[in-house]
Design a protein that fits this description.
The protein is mainly alpha-helical and 207 residues long. The protein contains eight helices and four strands; from the N terminus they run ααββαααββααα.
Length: 207
């Protein structure tokens, strides 16, 4: 089954395989975007709705999502009021989520490792030819607005310009905005840690 988070993870890997990629994809940024992608797909599936920025699981049961990772996301929703905000969901669900998707795709044979002549050196991860790869690549090439916005938040591409999200559901726009804000906050945390580490190193160097 193809889903937005699966497509996003595959696109991130395909782009990282490109020798002309502007910079490596940061796992933390990608994980936040994947958590947002899960919310968007669960919104479309009718598994949840948004009340303001709060994620509210729907009372009616449409059955578990066909994808096991989305099913796990649906099972992780906070069902008691006051419900979880999108921001809180991104930080809680997003922790290590990129690694989780990579592991699932590897288990399903969608990711493989190139063979190296030297047995002690691991080959790089590649995306195997499959219908899932073709679907993700086609969606990426089409510039589908939601996937493009999530990819931009994860640093995979430049942010869409103009009114690319015009006509997009308000709830989806709310999720995309929360993802962008979380990525900016995460970068701020990285910068503070870098400054603190540099100051610590200078103390030991006697600077």
């Amino acid at each position: 089954m193809t889903t937005t988070p699966r497509d996003l993870q595959l696109v991130a890997l395909l782009v990282s395989m490109d020798a002309e990629a502007p910079r490596p994809v940061v796992p933390g940024d990608l994980s936040l975007a994947l958590a947002g992608a899960e919310v968007i797909d669960l919104l479309h599936a009718g598994t949840l709705s948004l009340e303001g920025d709060r994620i509210v699981p729907c009372d009616h049961d449409r059955g578990a999502p066909a994808d096991r990772l989305l099913d796990a996301a649906a099972s992780a929703l906070v069902r008691q009021a006051p419900h979880e905000s999108v921001e809180d969901w991104l930080w809680r669900r997003g922790r290590g989520l990129s690694a989780l998707y990579r592991a699932a795709l590897t288990e399903e044979g969608l990711l493989t490792r190139e063979r190296r002549r030297l047995p002690f050196r691991k080959g790089r991860t590649t995306v195997a030819a499959s219908s899932a790869r073709s679907h993700a690549a086609d969606r990426w090439a089409s510039g589908e607005p939601v996937l493009a916005a999530l990819a931009a938040a994860a640093g995979i591409r430049e942010a869409p310009t103009g009114d690319a999200l015009s006509g997009t559901d308000d709830a989806v726009v709310t999720v995309l905005a929360a993802v962008n804000e979380a990525v900016v906050e995460l970068e701020g945390v990285r910068q503070r840690r870098s400054v603190e580490q540099a100051a610590f190193d200078n103390i030991w160097r006697g600077v």
